[in-house]
Sequence to fold (287 residues):
Amino acid sequence: MTWFREKIYASARQTFEIGKHIYRGKSEYQIIEVFENSYLGRVLVLDGIVQTTERDEYIYHEMLSHVPILAHGGVANVLLIGGGDGGMLEELLKHPVTRVTMVEIDATVIEVCRKHIASISSGAFDDPRTRLIIGDGTAFVAETQERFDLIVIDSTDPVGPSVMLFERTFFENCRRVLSPDGIVVSQNGVPFFQTDELLNCHRVFSTLFPHSGFFVAPVPTYYGGFMAFGWGSVGLDMSDPDLTAITARYARAGLSTRYYNPEIHQAAFALPNDIRELLSYPSPPRR
Fold:
């Protein structure tokens, strides 16, 4: 029996049984691996860190796409930074958006995932609304004159090629290219272990955007409890979802989801006390 050992945290490890090695190679930016696990299906690993699995990818991808789109109610032009496995692209395209511009720095990740984990993207790369750009997402937002209703930052952890996607300058440029009620969302790791990621996003978003905050979801593969998703907007406050409006938009979209539903949408903004304490949020009033 062969085991893959993930070393994402300094004081904790998790292991995955490798049923079969599917791919291992090195791109210009990182080491890429795909292996098969009897329970999780095919697993994508970048530089020794598990990125996604066939078994639970839907939770992460549904929450980081459907929550902001249904909160907004009129998203047409989307910018996706990262997301080389194609799972986020697939979920975004379930909505009647006009176009999704996807900027991914590593073409090899896309090639490997389209060949070896095609179930995650389900043909999204071939959708005519997809505009794929192989390049640096930070440079794109610094240079583009386009405006976007939604920017989704589907990055790896802040190491290697993703480091710049966590810096203030990048988010300043994201704000510049947002439409008036546009939303930017990002993944911010598992706060129980990755406190700095959460706090860095909080410092940046709370000073750049009049409206900002976090919502959470449990993604089994991302060991350590709830995963946090940060959001910011100049003109739209997502922090207190209107369940009636969200339910109506969900029904109109005709979505087929495995984790997301309007009640989950609303509940995701109810942060646990330990996360509220990290963010110095006041306790919610008793009802």
Notes: The chain has two domains: 2-53, 57-279. The CA atoms of residues 126 and 166 lie 29 Å apart. The first strand starts at residue 2 and ends at 6. The radius of gyration is 18 Å.
